[in-house]
């Protein structure tokens, strides 16, 4: 956290040097000393400081300045930093004005010039005021800040993007946060342009789109090489493992991710059955560790960037991105995972991102504090989300169509849920309608033959998954649900032999297109476990090596 600021203003160069010297001598270890001879420059700097999330503890201003009087400067400064202490430097002839200012601009004190020695005439006064300020000081977050409406789909997407890409940020709801209103007023921002993201340097973007934010944050928008040995599409556990092993084994490796590293596992609040972590770890922590490892070993990461097509040219594969750019590679590992299935229920589409969320949406948990929330689904992801939400919500209801959770959820999670007082499992239940105005307000729930309305702060949906393969346009053979067929499973596909022209059989994780491999949840027959996805990702690189020996 950056030190709070003491700002000194005096138009006389000799005086401001003396003020700055004495302030630094006493306070430089605890405070940042900023000195200027221009009141107008000081006011401009204050706005930048406010946008950067910096705090001002004390103003020291001369009274007689050509640009404006000291009391006028302090009055303007007070609007940006109302809690800062205000001290006026005056000559004997200006004492009447200083006394008057005590009432008019709530001046805290006035110092007579000269103040020598400062140990007697300056420091005791300032010490008292700074001590009083420190007693009420709560450090302001100085990183990325986002202002928006809590139940705005665009605000949700922005928060989700920042959290998924491991950028710390502070969220300000414009309807409840005083800091939001202060920043909007001082920067002349209008509500119609929300959300607004403030960066650490104080600059901001109104109503931003994700690629614009990604560019400002330094995420890699462009590939650096003309040719890669392997391009990995999707940065879930399988893709991250493939990236680590590909780079560590000397392959020119590129990892492309359309949203954020970690995939669905990255949104999990707690993974407790992953080998080597007896206390569990969050999905975001796993993603952070893995992406750090992959990049350290030499993997190039392209995110956010979406692949829309793969074209074949001789022995090479051309990966086409959404922005129109094309990447050339010798081999591909597809690890795009799955998307949550949409809840086909009346009203749900109206409130998606505004109270209804697919997946854990941990960024929205705090908004559920002391309220009732609902989780639809009986798998591990639903259970982990319910446990996380129980720390915030008054009550968490898990809606399942089955009798109980035993056939769909791990035993350790069931035990945790049963031991959590504010979680209730509702068997044979489903949501049949969502209601609200500009956000979700209540749900109609059906249990057996009975239905009723309940108030709901949020609904989190975990109703199974579908493979993210639509973009492939049938390039590689898929099963009836859209998962990619690989290895021995291809032998059962009637159309496979028509397109497979090599003398050898496909490698274990190879698709019906030679040199294109699949690993993790996107693959037909996958186990849907983080550990198995990591194993398949690592294994895919061994098959990439064998393929590259052929071409």
Would you give an account of this structure?
The longest helix has 19 residues. The chain has 15 helices and 26 strands. It has 4 domains: 132 residues, Rossmann fold; 73 residues, 3-Layer(aba) Sandwich (Glutaredoxin), CATH 3.40.30.10; 167 residues, FAD/NAD(P)-binding domain (3-Layer(bba) Sandwich), CATH 3.50.50; 115 residues, FAD/NAD(P)-binding domain. Strands 10, 11, 12, 13, 14, 15 and 26 form a 7-stranded mixed beta sheet that branches. Helix 2 packs parallel to helix 3, helix 10 packs parallel to helix 11 and helix 10 packs across helix 15. The protein has 551 residues and is of the alpha/beta class. Helix 4 links the parallel strand 4 and strand 5. The mean pLDDT is 91.
Which CATH first-tier class of the largest domain would you pick? Alpha Beta
CATH architectural name of the largest domain: 3-Layer(bba) Sandwich
Tell me the count of domains. 4
Instruction: Please state roughly what percent of the residues sit in beta strands, choosing from under 5%, 5-15%, 15-25%, 25-35%, 35-45% or over 45%.
Output: 15-25%
Secondary-structure-derived class: alpha/beta
Largest sheet: 7 strands, mixed
* CATH evolutionary superfamily of the largest domain: FAD/NAD(P)-binding domain
Helicity level, as a percent range? 25-40%
What is the number of E strands?
26
How far is the first residue's CA from the last residue's CA?
54 Å
Model regions low in confidence, pLDDT < 50 over at least 5 residues: none
Classify the oligomer: single chain
Estimated radius of gyration: 30 Å
């Amino acid at each position: 956290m950056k030190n709070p600021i003491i700002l000194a203003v005096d138009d006389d160069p000799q005086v401001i040097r003396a003020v700055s010297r004495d302030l630094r001598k006493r306070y430089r270890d605890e405070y940042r000393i900023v000195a200027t001879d221009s009141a107008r420059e000081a006011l401009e700097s204050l706005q930048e400081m406010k946008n950067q999330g910096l705090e001002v503890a004390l103003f020291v201003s001369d009274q007689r300045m050509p640009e404006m009087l000291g009391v006028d400067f302090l009055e303007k400064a007070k609007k940006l930093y109302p809690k800062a202490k205000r001290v006026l430097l005056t000559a004997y002839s200006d004492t009447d004005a200083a006394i008057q200012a005590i009432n008019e601009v709530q001046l805290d004190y006035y110092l007579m010039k000269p103040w020598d020695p400062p140990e007697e005439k300056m420091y005791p006064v300032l010490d008292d005021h700074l001590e009083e300020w420190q007693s009420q000081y709560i450090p302001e977050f100085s990183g990325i800040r986002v202002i928006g409406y809590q139940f705005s789909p665009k605000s949700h997407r922005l928060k989700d993007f920042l959290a998924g890409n491991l950028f710390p940020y502070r969220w300000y709801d414009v309807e409840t946060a005083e800091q939001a209103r202060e920043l909007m007023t001082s920067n002349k921002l209008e509500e119609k342009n929300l959300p607004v993201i403030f960066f650490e340097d104080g600059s901001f973007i109104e109503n931003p789109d994700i690629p614009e934010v990604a560019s400002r944050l330094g995420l890699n928008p462009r590939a650096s090489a003309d040719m890669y040995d392997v391009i990995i599409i999707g940065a879930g556990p399988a893709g991250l493992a493939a990236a680590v092993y590909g780079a560590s084994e000397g392959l020119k490796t590129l990892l492309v991710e359309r949203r954020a590293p970690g995939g669905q596992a990255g949104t999990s609040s707690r993974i407790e059955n992953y080998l080597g972590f007896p206390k569990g770890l969050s999905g975001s922590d796993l993603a952070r560790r893995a992406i750090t490892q992959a990049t350290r070993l030499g993997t190039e990461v392209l995110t956010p960037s979406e692949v829309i097509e793969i074209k074949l040219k001789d022995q090479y594969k051309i990966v086409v991105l959404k922005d129109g750019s094309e990447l050339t590679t010798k081999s591909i590992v597809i690890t795009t995972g799955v998307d949550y299935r949409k809840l086909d229920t009346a009203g749900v589409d109206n409130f998606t991102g505004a109270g209804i969320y697919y997946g854990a949406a941990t960024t929205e948990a705090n908004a559920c504090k002391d309220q009732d929330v609902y989780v639809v689904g009986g798998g591990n992801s639903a259970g982990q989300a319910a446990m996380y939400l129980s720390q915030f919500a008054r009550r968490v209801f898990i809606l399942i169509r089955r009798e109980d959770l035993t056939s769909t959820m791990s035993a350790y999670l069931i035990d945790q849920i049963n031991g959590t007082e504010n979680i209730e499992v509702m068997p044979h239940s489903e949501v049949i309608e969502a209601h609200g105005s500009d956000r979700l307000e209540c749900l109609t729930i059906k249990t057996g033959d009975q239905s009723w309305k309940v108030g709901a702060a949020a609904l989190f949906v975990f109703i199974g998954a579908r493979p993210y393969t639509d973009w492939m346009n049938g390039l590689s053979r898929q099963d009836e649900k859209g998962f990619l067929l690989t290895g021995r499973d291809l032998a059962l596909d009637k159309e496979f032999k028509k397109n497979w022209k090599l003398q050898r059989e496909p490698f274990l994780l190879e698709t019906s297109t030679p040199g294109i491999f699949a690993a993790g949840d996107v693959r037909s027959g996958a186990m849907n476990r983080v550990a198995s996805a990591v194993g398949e990702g690592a294994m895919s690189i061994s098959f990439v090596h064998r393929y590259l020996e052929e071409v």
